[in-house]
């Protein structure tokens, strides 16, 4: 024993005693080893690990990340996690295999210039500073709140990220593949974006609605009359469903970013298909790129349904007349010029697709009606259609509408077996054209098709008499009659200039033929049917 200052004794140990002490220490340390874990020598500085908290002491957090020894995470000045809590996205900062020590860090992703995905923890211990987040980096996260189209997401940073979305995310929803769009450190703001895919739609269907047996694209993506702002999808799910599917109602629709999805049950879909519903018939002719899912057993059932010409004719005409009446309501009732223009075009497209089905048994050209979009839009633009102007639109388009119905009727007669009676169907008729190309317009007295005064090469053929005028002249004549408080008539023969479709009769007839049981309106075509 050696004397020490102030009565402190210093003990000099023999080599054997020192060896025994080291052995005891070695035995004491070895009990923390996991002999089946990853060897420390195989770890690389900067690699990403995930693990579970095994202990917390002062500002040190011990994490089991699958190696033979726990890693140590320093969290001075940060909230500490709980024992048993999972930490993800940790970086190996240093490794001393001989001493059995691994240092971990929470500085991930942006510090290494990578776009690897990371998932945040639930506490404040694993928070990436905003200054280290790179634009374009990809993360996963959990929804913490939603407010007026904004989704707040915990993605592991010091502040939640914000994403604009019309999809009704709920708190706790997990979102993958979030991309950083912008970072503003001064305002402590991170903007995120998510590029949703068809797979995301299928996941939403499987998790919220039920097993998806078919998923089809429809609308502008198929018909290509204009670049689509969104992608309309028709989904068919098998029963029993995970939630009530009120077929053809808003309650059975959802929006996922630019995807607008209408959900139907198998039973409802097959019922409507057997009624020759054009929405369902259209999907049978879709190119493969527009069929994202169609299970074999469902495909056999739907393609086994044969066309019934008479029922198809009645369904198509009813659908077209309803859409025509809806276009009138859009303009006169709602004052929505854009939607009225679209619905007027839809009516012609319905009839064109009906003609193809009647003639070929399938749709062979989805773009065939696109010229009608150009014609209808041109009419609305050139005569400056305003809310309440349906009395101007119908005289200019009614003859073409009735001619399209007559064309479908001709195809019906050609599709029927010889001798089959269709007396219950009223044969559409239209008067012959009463003017020649070189004849003058009775209103402006300029040549009909070469008028420089009207500035318009389109003509309007009045539906009940066949007299022909420049479209601008016809519009001016109708507006003058309205201003005088009179109903518009042909200035030559004084006959009416309208189809005379009664809204109540059209709606009731369409409801009866298509057997919806309730009155409804359409939103787009092939129509998303909305029951009232």
First-last Cα distance: 100 Å
Task: Find the count of extended strands (DSSP E, 2+ residues).
Answer: 19
Strand sequence of the main sheet, in spatial order?
A: 1-2-3-5-4
**Count of DSSP H/I helices:** 12
Strand content is 15-25%
Helix content: 25-40%
The domain tally reads: 4
**Cα gyration radius (Å):** 36 Å
Q: What structural class do the secondary elements suggest? A: alpha+beta
Shape: elongated
The low-confidence runs, each spanning 5 or more residues with pLDDT under 50, are 1-31, 108-126, 450-457, 516-532
Largest sheet: 5 strands, mixed, barrel
Average pLDDT, all residues: 80
Can you describe what's shown?
- It is a single chain.
- The protein is α+β, with helices and mostly antiparallel strands and 532 residues long.
- It has four domains: 31-106, Nucleic acid-binding proteins (OB fold (Dihydrolipoamide Acetyltransferase, E2P)); 113-194, Beta Barrel (OB fold (Dihydrolipoamide Acetyltransferase, E2P)), CATH 2.40.50.140; 211-303, no CATH class; 312-531, no CATH class.
- It has twelve helices and 19 strands.
- It has a five-stranded mixed barrel.
- The longest helix has 26 residues, at 309-334.
- The model is unreliable at 1-31, 108-126, 450-457 and 516-532 (pLDDT under 50).
């Amino acid at each position: 024993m050696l004397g020490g200052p102030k009565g402190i004794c210093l003990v000099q140990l023999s080599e054997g005693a020192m060896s025994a002490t080291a052995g005891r220490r070695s035995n004491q340390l070895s009990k923390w080893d996991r002999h089946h874990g990853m060897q420390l020598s195989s770890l690389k500085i900067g690699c990403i690990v995930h693990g579970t908290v095994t202990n917390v002491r002062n500002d040190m957090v011990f994490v089991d990340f699958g190696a033979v020894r726990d890693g140590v995470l320093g969290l001075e000045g940060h909230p500490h996690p709980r024992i048993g809590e999972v930490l993800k996205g940790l970086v190996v900062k240093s490794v001393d295999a001989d001493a059995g020590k691994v240092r971990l860090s929470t500085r991930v992703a942006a510090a290494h210039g990578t776009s690897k995905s990371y998932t945040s923890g639930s506490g404040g211990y694993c928070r990436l500073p905003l200054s280290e987040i790179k634009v374009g980096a990809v993360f996963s996260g959990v929804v913490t709140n939603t407010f007026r189209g904004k989704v707040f997401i915990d993605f592991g940073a010091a502040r939640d990220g914000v994403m604009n979305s019309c999809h009704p995310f709920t708190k706790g929803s997990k979102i993958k593949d979030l991309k950083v769009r912008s970072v503003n450190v001064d305002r402590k703001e991170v903007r995120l974006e998510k590029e949703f895919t068809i797979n995301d739609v299928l996941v939403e269907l499987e998790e919220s609605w039920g097993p998806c047996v078919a998923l089809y694209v429809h609308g502008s993506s198929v018909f290509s009359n204009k670049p689509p702002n969104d992608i309309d999808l028709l989904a068919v799910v098998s029963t029993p469903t995970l939630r009530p599917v009120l077929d053809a109602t808003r309650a059975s629709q959802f929006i996922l970013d630019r995807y607008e999805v209408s959900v139907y049950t198998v039973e409802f879909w097959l019922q409507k298909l057997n009624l020759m519903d054009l929405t369902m018939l259209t999907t049978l002719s879709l190119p493969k790129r527009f069929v994202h899912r169609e299970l074999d057993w469902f495909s056999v059932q739907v393609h086994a349904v044969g066309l019934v010409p008479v029922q198809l004719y009645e369904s198509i005409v009813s659908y077209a007349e309803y859409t025509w009446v809806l276009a009138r309501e859009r303009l006169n009732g709602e004052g929505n010029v854009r939607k009225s223009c679209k619905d007027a075009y839809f009516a012609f497209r319905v009839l064109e697709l009906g003609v193809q089905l009647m003639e070929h048994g399938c749709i062979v050209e989805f773009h065939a009606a696109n010229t009608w979009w150009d014609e209808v839009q041109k009419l609305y633009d050139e005569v400056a259609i305003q809310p309440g102007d349906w009395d101007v639109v119908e005289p200019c388009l009614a003859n073409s509408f009735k001619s399209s119905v007559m064309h479908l009727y001709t195809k019906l007669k050609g599709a029927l077996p010889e001798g089959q009676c269709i007396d219950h169907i009223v044969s559409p008729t239209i008067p012959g054209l009463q003017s020649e190309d070189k004849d003058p317009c009775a209103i402006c007295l300029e040549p009909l098709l070469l008028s420089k005064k009207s500035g318009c090469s389109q003509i309007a053929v009045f539906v009940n008499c066949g007299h022909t005028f420049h479209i601008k002249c016809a519009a001016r004549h109708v507006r003058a009659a309205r201003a005088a408080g009179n109903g518009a008539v042909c200035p030559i023969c004084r006959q009416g200039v309208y189809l005379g479709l009664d809204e109540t009769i059209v709606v009731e007839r369409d409801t009866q033929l298509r057997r919806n049981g309730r009155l409804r309106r359409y939103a787009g075509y092939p129509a998303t049917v909305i029951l009232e």
